[in-house]
Inverse folding.
C-alpha cells in the first residue's frame, strides 16, 4: 500500500510538473530572442537612432496609449520598464523613458487599455 501511494504521488507530481514549468516559460519567443540584439537598450538607441535602424530589439513596459492611424496601422506609446527573467516588465519605478511602437495592423485600443491612466485613448 505504501509503494502504491508513493507511485501515485510521483505520477501526480509528474503531471503537475509541466504546469509549473509553463508558468516559468519566457513570454518572448525563442526565435525573436535569437534575432534581437538584446544588448541594445532604449538609452543606447536614443543616442543615435540612425545607427540602429533595421535592428530588432526587445523592450517592454506599460502601454500608456494606443492610437489607430488612418492607414490601418496602430501607434503604441509605452512607458519603458526593465524586463524580468521571463521577459515581462518588472514592477519597478526604474525606466529609461517612453518609446513609440508602430504596428502594421489595426489593434483594438480596448485590449490595451490601462486602468492606471484614466485618460487613455
Amino acid at each position: 500500500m505504501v509503494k502504491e501511494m508513493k507511485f501515485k504521488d510521483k505520477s501526480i507530481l509528474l503531471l503537475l510538473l509541466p504546469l509549473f514549468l509553463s508558468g516559468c516559460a519566457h513570454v518572448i519567443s525563442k526565435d525573436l530572442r535569437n534575432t534581437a540584439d538584446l544588448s541594445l537598450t532604449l538609452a543606447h538607441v536614443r543616442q543615435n537612432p540612425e545607427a540602429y535602424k533595421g535592428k530588432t530589439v526587445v523592450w517592454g513596459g506599460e502601454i500608456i496609449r494606443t492610437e489607430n492611424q488612418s492607414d490601418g496601422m496602430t501607434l503604441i506609446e509605452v512607458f519603458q520598464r526593465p524586463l524580468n527573467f521571463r521577459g515581462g516588465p518588472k514592477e519597478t519605478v526604474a525606466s529609461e523613458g517612453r518609446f513609440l511602437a508602430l504596428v502594421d495592423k489595426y489593434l483594438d485600443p480596448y485590449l490595451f487599455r490601462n486602468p492606471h491612466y484614466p485618460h487613455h485613448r
Q: What stands out?
A: Residues 1-22 have pLDDT under 50 and may be disordered. The radius of gyration is 20 Å. The beta strands are 60-68, 74-81, 98-103.
